[in-house]
Amino acid sequence: MSSLKFHGLMAMVAAGAAVAAALPSAAAAPASDEGGYVNSTARCPAPKSVVVFGATGNSRVAICKTPDGDFEYRGVRVSDGAKLIVPAEESTDGTFVADNGPVSYMVTAKSLVISEGSKVVREETMVDYHGPQAPAPATPTSTTPLPAPLPAEQGADDG
């Protein structure tokens, strides 16, 4: 290969690498702040406050709390920008459900489940999730002293 062709090929490879480096990664989480996703329907505008928000490969969602204490589902389909803003309810297990006619949207820390009646239409795994953390298990606070260690707990005597 001539030196000119080699250098031209290397320039094309370098240019391709520069373009690839400038493109956002498909796995990268969308930009977010304390209100949800920046420049997205999946954010809670003031005076509402964000409860949880997350992204799947296809969707971005936010659950907002209104000043009156009601919940609101705010979702957007990434492929075409379709938006949905409807009231939501919190379940006893910490999930949120929003109904839009016969279609329900359930938001959990693990997924967005879209169903129609009792039929799951689609379940999308969360790739980015922001919400309350599970409470840490309680530390025992017993004041009863422990008994003396058993011989097997004391270690071997090499003597």
Automatic annotation (TrEMBL):
Signal peptide range in chain numbering: 1-20
The source's domain of life comes to Bacteria
**Disordered: where is this region?**
129-159
Q: Which UniProt keywords are given for this protein, alphabetically ordered?
A: Signal
Q: What is this protein's name?
A: Serine/threonine protein kinase
